[in-house]
Automatic annotation (TrEMBL):
UniProt cross-references to Pfam families, sorted A to Z: NAD_binding_4, Sterile
Membrane topology: Single-pass membrane protein
InterPro entries: FAR (IPR026055), FAR_C (IPR033640), FAR_NAD-bd (IPR013120), NAD(P)-bd_dom_sf (IPR036291)
Main subcellular location: membrane
Family matches, as SUPFAM superfamilies: NAD(P)-binding Rossmann-fold domains
Coiled-coil segments on the chain, per record: none
Catalytic activity: hexadecanoyl-CoA + 2 NADPH + 2 H(+) = hexadecan-1-ol + 2 NADP(+) + CoA; 16-methylheptadecanoyl-CoA + 2 NADPH + 2 H(+) = 16-methylheptadecan-1-ol + 2 NADP(+) + CoA; eicosanoyl-CoA + 2 NADPH + 2 H(+) = eicosan-1-ol + 2 NADP(+) + CoA; (9Z)-octadecenoyl-CoA + 2 NADPH + 2 H(+) = (9Z)-octadecen-1-ol + 2 NADP(+) + CoA
Name under which the protein is recorded: Fatty acyl-CoA reductase
High-level lineage: Eukaryota, Metazoa, Chordata, Craniata, Vertebrata
Length: 518
């Protein structure tokens, strides 16, 4: 049987969402580890005043592609951008491009989606469900298609506690929902959204569940695999440890903690923090593409791409490693930190609220007061309000526990040759969590914030300055409180005199004993 790289040799691959976090890693890995792949057709839209060609060229110059560039400086010749806006009818692909794609594509990877937790339902439905439906229709017209790989999320069925590798009945028939939302204005849809999504926390997980069903409906006509990653984090090893390019999920949390802004977060200590590195997800995705095309399973195969059942890492452990994370940020500080990094995880709502008040709101108020007094615009309270909104959306995932069955992931691994198991490694048992988290933190600094590692001494100096400010502030606060007490209470004065005389006696005793020994 062909190895994975042998299988992709000479193949034309279509990728949606290639400019996104996972899509980029998929493109890079395909080019690097399957160098004989014929061409990658990327469905890309123009955005922010940039044409799709410009966007793809920019993407290929980014650091992520350094290793591919080293191996093959002409790799860009294999990349063929196709203009497409997935929110438009027919995905806004020109008839010539449709003809080209239906004539040559062998494998489709569908990564595009809106992953925002606060996306209005109509928008999420349009992109995550209707666009998926349209892509499936296009795929059915492809003459040589061997595999259709759909990227879903392990949380598509987060209303269940135990999640098997099956496609569950959808919360509503997607066709009916699409038809009914068509005539409703945005206000009505916003009002009925909570009723519709029911026991799911957001429109993202709801529409991803519908998308799975839409894909499954075509399992008789297409060879389908559905990949369900949990919380996708920075890369473990490839192309560099710690590669990450966004603020989603844990990345924003780590950055906010590293900047000393986030000091407290609520999580269930005993629950699994189901993080999975992006390179492992992509390795599994490529392996699933190969398996689907070679074995052509009769029905869609679902891969729960998670770590919890195999190499669990708990929120409580993050709580313990947090010192590791924080000391990593103290060794490699982020620039312009607001305070020294020192975050805590608690499962207790009231304790969390207390720390939010003391460690978030109070310092923000003081800093904004300082900004106002120095003639600047206050900004810290606004930043904290945004942070609290983001954290409140993430807390659903950090305060509960799920159990995913990942037998298909194990089955797939057992099908790989020893060589492929190394090149397309998704053996999550090999993850060393403290080391991974440390590289993740450094990755946020290097690749998300684009901070220069040579500026670390200045950042450390800044942290020392913050420490001195804190010591001075705390001392002044204690003296102030004590002065208030001393002025008002005879008992406080008595305690004060008692402590001072005790200190004095100790000093005299030590001086006397050191004179005797000399
Ligand atoms: C104390 C340490 C503890 C460690 C704890 C670790 C982990 C965290 C806990 C839980 C993680 C659970 C995650 C569950 C994932 C479920 C799995 C999935 O299937 S999918 C993908 C996950 N999706 C997301 O993560 C998206 C979530 N984000 C959103 O929905 C939105 O971003 C938002 C939270 C609603 C905020 O929206 P808002 O409009 O306010 O902001 P924008 O996102 O538009 O950003 C505006 C602007 O700001 C930049 N930004 C964002 N975050 C930060 C930040 N932390 N610091 C600095 N800047 C930030 C952002 O890039 C935008 O910039 P620009 O306008 O230039 O693009
Ligand atoms: N990140 C995570 O933690 C997890 C992600 N997933 C799934 O993985 C997949 C990829 O996620 P991720 O890479 O993180 O997401 P990103 O937000 O980083 O990328 C989304 C991609 O979709 C494209 N896209 C969005 N809207 C449109 C549109 N209207 N027309 C054309 N393209 C569009 C974006 O293009 P553009 O650059 O033009 O905006 C981008 O390339 C998703 O299906 C997601 O559900 C699953 C589990 C966890």
């Amino acid at each position: 049987m062909a190895s994975i790289a042998e299988y992709y040799a000479g193949k034309n691959v279509l990728i949606t969402g290639a400019t996104g976090f996972m899509g980029k890693v998929l493109v890079e890995k395909l080019l690097r580890s399957c160098p004989e792949v014929k061409a990658l057709y990327l469905l890309v839209r123009p955005k922010a005043g940039q044409s799709m060609q410009q966007r793809v060229s920019d993407m290929m110059t980014c650091k992520l592609f350094d290793r591919v560039r080293e191996d093959n400086p002409d790799f860009h010749q294999k990349i063929i951008p196709i203009s497409s806006e997935l929110m438009q009818p027919g995905l806004a692909i020109s008839p010539e491009d449709v003809e080209k794609l239906t004539g040559c594509i062998d494998v489709v990877f569908h990564c595009a989606a809106t992953i925002r937790f606060d996306e209005p339902l109509k928008h999420a439905l349009q992109l995550n469900v209707i666009a998926t439906q349209q892509l499936v229709s296009l795929a059915k017209q492809m003459h040589h298609l061997e595999a259709f790989i759909h990227i879903s999320t392990a949380y598509a069925n987060c209303n269940r506690k135990h999640i098997d590798e099956v496609i569950y009945p959808p919360p509503v028939e997607p066709k009916k929902l699409i038809e009914s939302l068509e005539w409703m204005d945005d206000g009505i849809v916003r009002d009925i959204t909570p009723r519709l999504i029911g026991d799911r926390p957001n429109t993202y997980t709801y529409t991803k569940a519908l998308a799975e069903f839409v894909v499954q409906q075509e399992q008789d006509k297409l060879n389908i695999a559905i990949i369900r990653p949990s919380i996708v984090g920075a890369s473990w090893q490839e192309p560099f440890p710690g590669w990450i390019d966004n603020f989603n999920g844990p990345s924003g949390v780590f950055i906010a903690a590293g900047k000393g802004i986030l000091r407290t977060m609520r999580a269930n200590n005993d629950a699994v923090a189901d993080l999975i590195p992006v390179d492992m997800v992509i390795n599994l995705t490529l392996a699933a593409g190969w398996y689907t095309a070679v074995h052509r399973p009769k029905s869609a195969v679902v891969y729960n791409c998670t770590t919890g059942g195999i190499n669990p890492f708990h929120w409580g452990e993050i709580g313990r490693y947090i010192h590791h994370v924080m000391s990593s940020f103290k060794r490699n500080p982020l620039e312009q930190a607001f305070r020294r990094p020192n975050a805590n995880i608690t499962s207790n709502y009231l304790i969390n609220q207390y720390w939010i008040l003391v460690s978030h709101k109070f310092p923000a108020l003081i800093y904004d007061l300082f900004l106002r007094l120095s003639g600047q615009k206050p900004q810290m309270m606004r930043i904290f309000n945004r942070l609290h909104k983001a954290i409140s959306l993430l807390e659903y995932f950090s305060s509960q526990d799920w159990e995913w069955n990942s037998e298909n992931m194990n089955m797939l691994m057992s099908q790989l040759t020893p060589e492929d198991r190394k090149t397309f490694n998704f053996d999550v048992r090999q993850l060393n969590w403290p080391e991974y988290i440390e590289n993740y933190c450094i990755g946020t600094k290097k690749y998300v914030l684009n901070e220069d590692m040579s500026d670390i001494p200045a950042a450390r100096q800044h942290l020392r300055k913050l420490r001195n400010i804190r010591y001075t502030f705390n001392t002044l606060l204690v003296v102030f409180i004590w002065r208030v007490f001393i002025a008002r209470s005879q008992m406080a004065r008595n305690i004060w005199y008692f402590v001072v005389s005790l200190c004095f006696k100790f000093l005299s005793y030590f001086r006397a004993s050191s004179t005797i020994t000399n």
